[in-house]
Amino acid sequence: MNPLIWLVLDSCRYDSFVRAAKPNFDAFAAASGAVVERRWSYASFTAPSHYAFLMGLTPHRSPMNVLASEVYRSQFEQWSERLGVERLDFGSFLPHLSLPRVLKGLGYRTIGRVSLPVLNEATLISSHFDDYRLMADHADFAGMLREIDFSPGPGLQSTFHFLNLGETHYPYRMGAELPRLSGVHGTLRHMGDPAADDSRRPAFAPAALKAMHDQQSRCVENVDLLFAQLLERCPRGTHVIITADHGELFGEDGYFGHGPIMHPLVFEVPFLEGRVR
Questions:
Q1: Are residues 7 and 241 in contact, defined by beta-carbon separation less than 8 angstroms?
Q2: pLDDT, tens digit, for every residue of 88-143?
């Protein structure tokens, strides 16, 4: 059975990803005979998007003239090829509709590392993982790599690593250059503090919004450097999925951020998958 790694670049908009200088992602795509696709998230913010992922659903292509049931059926059936196992289908995921539970049943050790507090260990999203933890640092892909271990353990046959990366989420490691926006940051830690109320904050200037969009692409470039280190450690045959949970708005049509926003760019995400050769 193929080891599986699923990387979620939190909040990474499709165009932020494709315009970044990312030689390691590009080389992985070329070696796998794949391309970076524009796909669509099932949700506009972190938690529900990750619930969909861990049901076994990847971002979709939004096909026309197709019943939704056909799209779902195809998505579940693709897991057989990814894992190198006998036929899996929607019935294989019932009744729990949990990818980590299915993988555990096949003999995988399931490991989750997340960066966003809305995905912390106490949430239902951690269910069926053998080892699941919220990282102490909001952006610590490097720390995840230091811990990564492809040894399945006694009686198991393979590993599943699910990694949610905060590097591409606000504040994009810009530190003091940006004001603190508790809701946008996704931590929710200060939302009950009247002194921290940012609801009346004036809109960012266009130049500042452009700078944030550019910075998100630079964060993709930093992740790309670490991705090279991940590939060096992956066993041959490891199947890797790279995507985002949702996009981000940088002032387009009067919107900023993500969540309670109905705009195509907040659902538009990159998608790439392939096999380590």
A1: yes
A2: 999 999 999 999 999 999 999 999 999 999 999 999 999 999 999 999 998 999 99
Question: Looking only at Cα atoms, what is the longest distance across the chain?
Answer: 57
Q: Which is nearest to 53 in space by CA: 120, 100, 107?
A: 100
Kindly report, residue by residue over 219-276, the tens digit of the pLDDT: 999 999 999 999 999 999 999 999 999 999 999 998 888 999 999 999 999 999 999 9
With beta carbons less than 8 A apart as the criterion, state whether 23 and 179 touch. Answer: no
Report the alpha-carbon distance of residue 195 to residue 201 in Å, rounded: 13
Distance CA 145, CA 103 (A): 21
> Would you say 203 and 244 are in contact if contact means Cβ atoms under 8 Å apart?
no
Spatial distance between the Cα atoms of 17 and 139, rounded to a whole number of angstroms = 17
Domain 4-275 has CATH 3.90.550: no
Find the helix packing angle between 68-83 and 99-106, rounded to 10°.
30
CA–CA dist 153, 159 (Å, integer): 9
